[in-house]
Design goal:
The chain folds into 2 domains: 277 residues, Beta-Lactamase; 157 residues, Alpha-Beta Plaits, CATH 3.30.70.270. Helices cover 50% and strands 24% of the residues. Helix 12 links the parallel strand 18 and strand 19. Helix 1 packs antiparallel against helix 7, helix 9 packs antiparallel against helix 10 and helix 10 packs antiparallel against helix 11. It is rod-shaped, with a radius of gyration of 49 Å. The termini are close together.
């Protein structure tokens, strides 16, 4: 009887004796170690970023305090300069003699401004109307002039910023100035002197050098935001200004643009009717992350190294400890075949595949006839040698995908998967002939015969107990009728195959 004998070797079809689930244990242990170590690495990365942001936030807060102190110091210097100039005898005499000559007054203001290193000086009367100013192209915008001067009048010693309109320019630029006011008395109050220091690129560069912070100034006028000097690219500052809300002042926020991330702290520096000015200090998160990134690179190298070492260690432990323990639990000590525990696993797996994918299987139960006489007459050592020889012959006879188990004494079981009935019978015949060959033991030749019972499992019908019962019944018929093998028949057991 012919049949297709399949010679495959894959993870699902290899004999149970070759795996014993140690691979599953190995994968679980390695996966657990991977998850733990990668999880710890990710936690460290997140923790580094949180620490960096917290540290950077604290630095911005300290930077804001330094910035405010610098503004206060600058405001005091400007105020002292204005008061000294307002009390200068020559300046007072020039005002009293040249009130109708703006050119003379502007020349005097220009000379004094050059000595005081002020960007602009404005002389106004008591009605807050300008008398003279320098440079001549700068003037306070007419719609904001009264409001700014009134505000200075009410709170002359506070810090004030104001945008001044540059006359005759196409883009209507409005530079931002730090302004202070001082009363001009001779001896009565006759005029007001305003000194303004420009918030230009040189100014913000100096502040960045002192505070170690990036910085830019913006002002709000007539519902529009305007960017003035900035140490950051203008596109960055404008992008922030487009999203800025005055309520964010005094709060550290994160601002992302492209691949850059910054922590930003807006500071309100001046509030006047219809106008507000803000200084924005910022610091890139990448700068704070540099030492952490160096540590992270070291950690990543250590992570890879520890993962590799862990996998090697797990592999060695599995092979040296788990596999021997698994073999001890699933193998027969005498023959090296599977034991009854492995037999149960093999049949259960075969049933799952039968009911799942429809892969057929047959269960062969095998018993050696008159083996007890060998033990009784020749001793158990000879009997053990015979059993080992029988086991070796079974291994050579069946396919590599089949499972062979010794259930105890001289009883064996074989699970044949994905094998037709005719091919199963061919294998059973080969087994019978292989066992019947003489066995040399204790200087004698021993001839034994096997009774083989075959049962073919039925999909969604058989379970462990029923398939074992069928193969046992077939083996009993084989032994009682003295035929090499017998196939269990559902309806009749009278036809020998």
């Amino acid at each position: 009887m012919g049949g297709h004998l399949k010679q495959t070797f894959n993870l699902k079809s290899i004999p149970m004796k070759h795996r014993f689930y140690e691979s599953k244990i190995l994968y679980i242990l390695i996966s657990a170690l991977l998850c733990i170590q990668i999880g710890a690495y990710v936690v460290q990365l997140v923790n580094h970023r949180n620490i960096a942001e917290e540290t950077l936030s604290e630095e911005l807060t300290v930077g804001a305090q330094v910035f405010n102190r610098l503004l206060e110091s600058r405001n005091t210097q400007l105020q002292q300069t204005a008061e000294i100039l307002a009390k200068d005898y020559g300046f007072l005499e020039a005002i009293s003699m040249a009130q109708q000559d703006n050119a003379t007054l502007e020349s005097i203001l220009e000379n004094h401004g050059a000595r005081a290193k002020a960007s602009t000086l404005i002389l106004s009367d008591l009605d807050n109307q300008m008398i003279a100013h320098t440079p001549s192209k700068l003037a306070i915008a007419a719609d904001a002039q009264g409001a700014i001067l009134d505000h200075l009048e009410k709170d002359a010693h506070s810090i004030h910023f104001s945008t001044l309109h540059v006359l005759g320019t196409a883009n209507q630029s409005r530079p931002l100035f730090h302004v202070v006011k001082s009363a001009v008395r001779a001896p009565n109050h006759i005029a007001n002197l305003i000194i303004g220091d420009a918030i230009d690129q040189e100014f913000v560069n100096d502040l960045r050098h002192v505070t170690n912070m990036e910085m830019f100034f913006i002002s709000h006028h007539k519902q529009n935001w305007e960017l003035h000097a900035s140490t950051l690219p203008s596109l960055f500052a404008k992008a922030f200004t487009d999203q800025f809300n005055a309520e964010q002042a005094g709060k550290v926020t994160r601002f992302d643009i492209g691949n850059d991330a910054y922590l930003i702290l807006p500071i309100s520096v001046s509030q006047a009717e219809g106008e507000a000015a803000f200084a924005v200090i910022a610091k890139p998160l990448s700068q704070m992350m540099q030492p952490y990134r160096r540590a992270e690179r070291v950690l990543s190298v250590l992570l890879v190294a520890t993962l590799m070492l862990s996998m090697v260690a797990v592999y060695l432990v599995t092979k040296k400890m788990v596999t021997p323990l698994s073999e001890q639990a699933h193998l027969d000590n005498l023959t090296g075949l599977g034991n009854r525990r492995l037999f149960n696993l093999a049949v259960q797996d075969a049933l799952k595949r039968l009911n799942g994918t429809g892969t057929p299987f047959a269960l062969l139960m095998l018993d050696l006839d008159k083996f007890k006489q060998v033990n009784d007459t020749m001793g158990h050592d000879t009997g053990d040698a015979v059993l080992k020889t029988i086991a070796d012959r079974l291994k050579k006879t069946v396919r590599t995908t089949d499972n062979i188990m010794r259930l105890g004494g001289d009883e064996f079981a074989i699970v044949l998967e994905d094998c037709s009935e005719s091919a199963t019978c061919v294998i059973a015949d080969k087994i019978s002939k292989a066992i019947a060959e003489p066995i040399e033991a204790a200087d004698e030749y021993i001839v034994l015969h096997a009774s083989i019972g075959i049962a073919f499992a039925q999909k969604n019908t058989d379970d462990m107990d029923s398939i074992m019962k069928k193969s046992d019944e077939a083996m009993y018929i084989s032994k009682s009728t003295q035929v090499n093998y017998w196939c269990y028949q559902e309806k009749s057991t009278e036809d020998n195959i």
